[in-house]
Amino acid sequence: GATIDIQPEAAQPEREAPTSLDQCRRCELWRNATQGVPGEGPASARIMLVGEQPGDQEDLQGHPFVGPAGKLLDSAMSKAGLDRNTVYLTNAVKHFKWEPRGKRRLHKTPAQKEVDACSYWLEQEVAQVGPEVIVVLGSTALKSVLHTGKAGLTELIGKPFEHEGRWIVATYHPSYVLRVPDEEAKARAFEALVEAFQIAQEKAR
Ligand code: URA
């Protein structure tokens, strides 16, 4: 489907608004990232999925959810009967935050100040797409969408609520599901993701 471009805000007198993600200097994460990874999907999407930040593969390829977490997301969406091509997929933070670990780049959780700086981009995506439902994948996305570092994910799972005129459906991050060591607990977490996508489709009608 067609993708949308994120448009810049009017320039602020004290600070030039960045006109593209790759020019963004609102926080320091651009320094170690290959590129900014914008959201993707139809501008008419009724459901928006918000993850945390690009991972290793997303950073290299420039597209959201194309690595292992994306594969798990795909299988949960498909089990819920949700077509990936109809949803808008994005992240709370647009640059990959990592630290070296041997030859690998190890994911680091973004700081709240980085989440706050990057909500500049997410808010433009929400305004342009105007989804009826936002599925927040994990705690970072929840904090960004609710504009508070204090929001707790666990108590909101399976309980959709209204916020700023849209439905918010909170669920686990797919990378979290991948890391659950116990197989039964992992299966339950996966089912919670499937259920979140089913709830999202009911709320989007
Ligand atoms: N994890 C995320 O939160 N987003 C991606 O795009 C990939 C992995």
Automatic annotation (TrEMBL):
Top-level taxon: Bacteria
All copies of domain Uracil-DNA glycosylase-like, residue ranges: 38-194
Family, similarity comment: Belongs to the uracil-DNA glycosylase (UDG) superfamily. Type 4 (UDGa) family.
Name of the protein: Type-4 uracil-DNA glycosylase
